[in-house]
Amino acid sequence: MNIHLQSTTKLHNGVDMPWLGLGVFKVEEGSELVDAVKSAIKHGYRSIDTAAIYGNESGVGQGIREAVAENNLSRKDLFITSKVWNSDQGYEETLAAFETSLSKLGLDYLDLYLIHWPVAGKYKKTWRALEKLYTEGRVKAIGVSNFHVHHLQDILEDAKIKPMVDQVEFHPYLAQKELLSFTKEHGIQMEAWSPLMQGELLNQPVLKGIADKHGKSVAQVILRWDLQKGVVTIPKSTKEHRIIENASLFDFALTDAEMEQIDALNQDKRVGPDPDNFDF
């Protein structure tokens, strides 16, 4: 993959989505958040991923506005994602939640809106609301998050519009092989949350060995693995030097043998809840 920080993948509806973005999970409202968003955009990131439940859409919006002004960009240069939370699922509820997110972010459209979790009995109604927002041009792309293959099959049964993205927990200990091949087969772009397993993989010996060979950090090796697997990735950081380091993935490539070594680390091990078994 001969790509750079602003390279994009084309979603099945023709929309360009950056391969790399900044995630802001668990970053509270305040100057640290605003600075992280500004810093990412200043250093060339064009994609920011938030969610209603993170409680930080206002700060993300502020960071976006300041960064756009300071870096001579326009709104259309950026790719902004948010997600509808479980308690807001349902048809009318989702339409209302979307307006709330948009107003907190201070934006007049989103690039990507996702169903955060597959809430049983609700996610199909929620999907109908997303289809409406999409058809009306309020959002450029729609998708899901934390959907297993069977959830996707269920949505596809009667969806008018096929999800463009499935954002899931994905890292070397949870390689999601079946899901990855299903999404590729159906033209759904997979996206990784928690790509670094919340830091748990940073001392993993195999990854350390590969990192040393390339003169890179373990984080960079994992994120590069994501990209070479064809998975969009959104590492979370608030520290400027980490934000820069996480984006320094484009001056090296993993060999086929190294990719296989990393694939072999899979343990189907999660740091987050299982989408078949969550209670929130």
TrEMBL record:
Belongs to the aldo/keto reductase family. This is Aldo/keto reductase. One of its GO terms (molecular function) is oxidoreductase activity. The active site is at residue 54. Residues 31-266 form the NADP-dependent oxidoreductase domain. It comes from Paenibacillus dendrobii. The lineage of its organism: Bacteria, Bacillati, Bacillota, Bacilli, Bacillales. The keyword Oxidoreductase applies. It holds the Pfam family Aldo_ket_red.
